[in-house]
Amino acid sequence: MKIFGRFLIAFLLGSVLATGCYEDKGNYDYSTPGDDIVVSRFDTVKNIRLTWAYDEQIEIEPGFRIVTDRVRETDLGYEWNIDGEVVSSERVLRIDPLPVGRHSGTFTVIDEAHGLRYNSIFTLVITSSFSEGWFILSDDGGKSLLSYVNLVDENTPGELVRDVYGEVNGEELGSDPRKIRIVSYDGSPVTYEWEVLQGSGSVSIDQATMAKIGVIDEEFVGGAAPAGFVAVDGFQRDGGSIVLSEDGKVYQRDFSIYNKYPVPHSGKYGSTPVYMEGGMNIALMNGFDHFSVRSYGHIPFALLYDKQNNRFLSIYGYNLLGSASDQFGVFGTVKIPEAAAVKPGDTDSESGLEFPDPAGLGDYTVQAMGARIAPVSTGGTGVVTTATNYILLKSTVDGKYYILSFSYKMNSATSVAIELLGFKAFPETEGFNDQSLFEVLIGGQEVIFYTAGADNNILYAYDILDGTSRSVYTAPSRITALSTGVVDIPLASSLVQLAKTAYKDRMMVGTSTGSAALLDISESAVLAGNTPAIKTFTGLGQVVDMDFYIPKNAYCYYGY
What we know:
There is one protein chain. By secondary structure, the chain is mainly beta. The protein is built from three helices and 38 strands. Strands 2-9-8-5-6 form a five-stranded mixed sheet, with no helix packed on it. Strands 12-11-10-38 form a four-stranded antiparallel sheet. Strands 13-14-15-16 form a four-stranded antiparallel sheet. The longest helix has 8 residues, at 288-295.
């Protein structure tokens, strides 16, 4: 099936694995005291490939030498062992494609006449053709279209693969697209999937191969979603997941846990939505599972806006490696503690405005929200437990926009602390309205990007620290989607070299007329008021949503 081999990102193999996770001191020459046979080191034989794409049949011809006259080649047997299983007894290995990841192998030459075995250890790496880059979801004449832009390096975008789903699966993706989100299943190795949320039935897609896994709407009790269900967002931890419908209802399921890891797609969503006292109608949410994947951290909760009661709710999902699976899915109202230094009704020292109450926002409604995150060192691993939320509020009194910020911090497995930080007016910008986009950089620069202008085609950068904003890019038509790269977060000790942060200064901007521009959003470009387009892609239909994917260290697992 070798469709996207030109996008293969090869890993360099040698005596030391380039990831820094595993030091391979094998691949040495092996022989008996008589030195009858010498099996060549695989990393020194130029005609042997040890890196293959996920869709390639594997063929490896090994090298060895017979160095004494007492051994005849006709008396030799062969054995190929991959991941502890014998897969071939032929001299040349020919097997079907293997799963993406790192595979341990041993090639053995058997001197059957003398009962001797000569081994050589090798590492076989299977890579994905879709390893790093932006995935673009668009509406092309009413049909959902999933496309892909790979990245050659931190400064160089590759080619656009239009309709990557259709190319791989030989079918249309669906229609009425709403959102694309990356989810991960902890395990060894960690596996990643895309969820394409759409009106025609949301689907799960294997990140490595782009092959369809299943239909989310069928993962309910009884095999069908409730009437009126259209998935628009979700949240996932090891113990389970929730899915948000466009009608404001939330559905929940628990995963089965095997060997401390969740079983993908196990369990069923209940047919009855989650209920809280007072009811709820969820209009917006921040699922911090998504942020965790992009920031190499662990945030076990999600923030939800309940427009029915004009309040914030949270779902608690502390499930690291299945150790607390019974604690998934605890919903609660976001309340400021009685002992807090700053309480609702207090005056912001900078703006003079009175803080609203997250548990009941009064004269303000939530228009958009985002968050910045911070790492905390826990036992030598990088664990993200703190988020600073930036909420775009609109006053029902004067119709103006405001920014509310508060921290959201996990103190323990059962305690979340809320602290009000700031409340000030959002800069008045011509053309800014309820349809404007609002994108908080979750790490790196303290900047919020938003759209305004007569057709919402101008991108602005809002400086969180000094409260000023400046225009930085003008698109050819209405901006419909924004997506940033991996955040720049310092991790603790052993992890610092494993996190990839090369794309923190890049943003993809999608438009209503089918273009997507990769922008330079480095600090110098933002301060200059000019975030130039590095490359622009066209022919996509109206861009609906985009997301950036880069794996964690491919062969090591560290809990988020």
